[in-house]
Write a structure and sequence with these properties.
The protein is α/β, with parallel strands linked by helices and 302 residues long. It is built from 11 helices and 7 strands. Strand 1, helix 3 and strand 2 form a beta-alpha-beta unit.
Length: 302
């Protein structure tokens, strides 16, 4: 094989690897979308931590608006022309976000979640005029089908941890942000649910819960930003209730096809007993911690 043929062969191999990698990414995202669709009907009833995190993110948004507005401006008037709830799930946060903007987009990768959101939006809204300004969009956060500089406010709570590439996700947010736009993000970190990860490791079996990107991955991607972390803890009466709770909000999805068989296999009593033996039990039950990175970023300088 001559040099030209070797280069051609190497290029071909590289193309095959890239295509295989993309297929795996696409399969992962389809798996995520499907599992969240399955959880859509029961999501609101089980999303305890998600609701607490969402409110904390709204509190940060309100604080920034107060600092920026000073003594001027009407707090009851929309502050932004266009806002987007990125990873909106059933839309419970989108309806609240709509009070901040003249027009609001609820975007999610799961059509099942969006079906629930659009069907029950009137339940969240006391003012029917608000629901008219809401629009639903099925899309991938890493490939937003939106014009550049078209969104004034991006809000995303406990959704972006599912992104394959922090750099791609942050770049897309910055691309769609208007020149003076802001993004407020709450992202679950890889250090979350460590109680379960450690228990599975001690038992010598693969963990059923996903491992997410680390804090530094997101900070490297965001570069210029303001940020802090906060831990939220949820308690469960036993290991089965803990795992069922994760499944009920779609959070039990494993992104690696290599672990698919483990995730689909039934949970055994021996596994549940082993988990409870390895985890610490408190008066409130068995704790499961969620480490959240709160990021505030602006539009791209380019």
């Amino acid at each position: 094989m001559n040099a030209v043929q070797q280069i051609a062969a190497a290029t071909h191999d590289s193309t095959i690897r890239k295509k295989a990698r993309q297929r795996m990414v696409d399969d992962n995202k389809q798996l995520i979308a499907n599992n969240f669709a399955k959880a859509a009907n029961q999501y609101n009833a089980h999303a305890r931590v998600q609701k607490r995190v969402a409110q904390a993110l709204f509190d940060e948004l309100d604080q920034q608006l107060i600092l920026g507005r000073g003594s001027q401006g009407n707090v009851n008037q929309p502050q932004f022309p266009k806002a987007m709830d990125l990873g909106c799930a059933t839309g419970i946060n989108t309806a609240t976000l709509a009070s901040y903007a003249e027009t609001t987009i609820g975007l999610d990768i799961s059509l099942g979640m969006l079906d629930i959101a659009s069907a029950q939006v009137e339940r969240f809204n006391h003012n029917r005029l608000v629901s008219r300004s809401l629009h639903w969009l099925a899309a991938d956060a890493e490939h937003l089908p939106l014009a550049s500089q078209s969104i004034d406010l991006v809000y995303s709570s406990m959704a972006m941890q599912w992104c394959e590439s922090p750099s791609a996700a942050i770049a897309e947010i910055r691309r769609v942000l208007a020149p003076k736009g802001k993004a407020f993000l709450a992202i679950m970190l890889g250090s979350s649910m460590m109680e379960l990860h450690k228990a599975y490791h001690a038992l010598g079996i693969p963990s059923r819960v996903n491992s997410f990107h680390l804090e530094q991955d997101w900070l490297n991607a965001a570069a210029a930003c303001t940020h802090h972390t906060k831990t939220f803890v949820d308690y469960h009466p036993d290991a089965l209730a803990m795992l069922k709770s994760l499944k009920s909000v779609g959070a039990a999805t494993k992104q690696s096809p290599n672990n698919e068989s483990m995730c689909q296999a039934s949970i055994t009593r021996r596994e549940l007993k082993g988990l409870e033996q390895e985890m610490s039990q408190h008066a409130q039950g068995y704790p499961l911690s969620y480490d959240l990175l709160f990021l505030s970023i602006g539009a791209s300088a380019t």
